[in-house]
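User: Predict the complex with S-adenosylmethionine.
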Amino acid sequence: MNYIGSKLSLLSFLEESINKVIDNKCKIFCDLFAGTGIVGTHFKKQGFSIIANDIQYYSYVLNRNCIGNHKKLKFSKLIKAFPEVAERDGSMLLPDDDIKVTVCNYLSKLKGHKGFIYKHYCHGGTQGKEQSRQYFSDENGMLCDAIRHKIEEWKNDKLINNNEYYFLIASLIKSVDKYANTTSVYAAFLKNIKNSAKKKLIVKPAEFFINDQEHTVLNDDINNLVGKVKGDIFYLDPPYNQRQYATNYHLLETIAKYDNPAIHGKTGLREYESQKSSYCSKVQAMKSFKHLILQAQARYIFLSYNNEGIMSHQEIEDIMSLRGKYGYFTKEYSRYKADNNREYLSDKTTEYLHYVVCH
Ligand SMILES: C[S@@+](CC[C@H](N)C(=O)[O-])C[C@H]1O[C@@H](n2cnc3c(N)ncnc32)[C@H](O)[C@@H]1O
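Assistant: Here is the predicted structure with S-adenosylmethionine placed in the model:
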């Protein structure tokens, strides 16, 4: 996913830097501003037990799949009740990996349904109303509704278990995002349907890595959770600037929750008071960060931040040093594409990995 602040292209930098600091007794890696889950996944692959958390529910869903799922999914009840789900691909005796593809293919071929997404975020559903919106083509909006509805129905009918449920919603979220009629985030939509949004939505199976460890996925403000989470390594990757993830990704939140929220304004924003991040506020960021660092039950704490963030290097160093020996690594980095040509002049930025080895 093209996610603001994603560390996808910084994974080797993170791994190499972290390995220079930690000892070989570390077993639990906590990714506490997990976003897409790409960092937790990387360390899951190295054999760590992962604790992932994020304040956004769509992120919980993504992590519930890529971190929480670590055994094969069989969809046995679903296939038993509806052999036609598998039959669409011509065979019922499918290997475990193929069954995920088959169920996603079945969902991709459903007939569209005029549900919440179509009625509030597509041209056909909103034209002539007070606010006309075009986040998806009519066809994709209706298909998204039909798929989301079907997944919920299967869950209510106990035909899929929680692991299968989160896998399917994660697959839908990651797939539908590729067909959005936006420049990349959901803070605005485009007037005319762009080419990628015109293509028909196809649900691709969201990946997860199978390993032997137990993993935990949480969904809360980290400053509420911090006393209750314990691990060897805390990896912190908070927002760097004032733009709230809750507003940038509100549509993914609604598709994930599918809770018919009250919405308002030009973009159809849902209420997000309880998901406002203090790390996006100049007034609150330092206070929250200090609380988090002082309460952290970890042997090592790492913080990803860049040189243009709300907190200064000195402020971060002063706070992290309260817990032990402080240091940092840096890497030149091409900024996230949606940020280009906006508030900054340079398209390069310096990415910092601050750390403290706790007393
Ligand atoms: C820079 S992004 C993390 C990106 C992630 N490392 C990745 O590579 O996908 C910051 C994340 O922090 C989450 N967040 C913001 N404030 C939070 C808080 N107080 N507690 C937990 N998560 C928070 C946001 O929802 C967002 O997903």
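The beta strands are 28-31, 49-53, 216-218, 233-236, 263-264, 269-270, 300-306, 324-334, 348-358.
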